[in-house]
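[Meeting: bench + compute handoff]

Bench side (C.D.) handed over the final construct sequence. Compute side (W.E.) agreed to return the predicted structure before the next meeting so the bench team could plan truncations. Sequence as handed over:
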Amino acid sequence: MRSLFLILILQCFAFADSMYFMPYQAKDAVNALIKEIRQAKKEVKIAIYSFTNREISKAIRDVAKKGVNFKIIYDYKSNIDDDKSTIGYLAKLKNVNVCTLKGRQSNNGKYYGIMHNKLAIIDNKTIIFGSANWSKSAFDINYEMLLISQNKEYIVDSAKYFDQMFKECQAY
């Protein structure tokens, strides 16, 4: 079992073009993420639990002004009442479609899960994922990782997953 796990980990990283570990590589990680967003030509799909980083939201604004379409899924619970969230700012922009997604209801009906992804798919050519929310603390003080890849299999599977979630989203 352990060797299977190691093989899966190695396969994951074998396709990685860039990997960043925060807080040590925070500046490089943010710059790489923004660079990928700025290179978008047609469409960017984002599913993000917490998104408060103004620098990244400004890059999205600039690229959306050039006609690139954005679909952004935010977690419902962590963004609706958070005055630091970028959701309200980005929802007002042309070419940016913002929605929220609750996790599934628990079996006992007492609570909902969360939409905990940290995922971006750019032009169905690049995928960005990892543990890092798009927040200042995630990049500057937390121990997180960010992976940028052009692995086609990951992109296809993640795009299907994203589209399923997007169908369940509630418009903001």
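W.E. noted at the follow-up: The domain at 25-171 is CATH 3.30.870.10 (Endonuclease; Chain A). C.D. will use this when planning the next construct.
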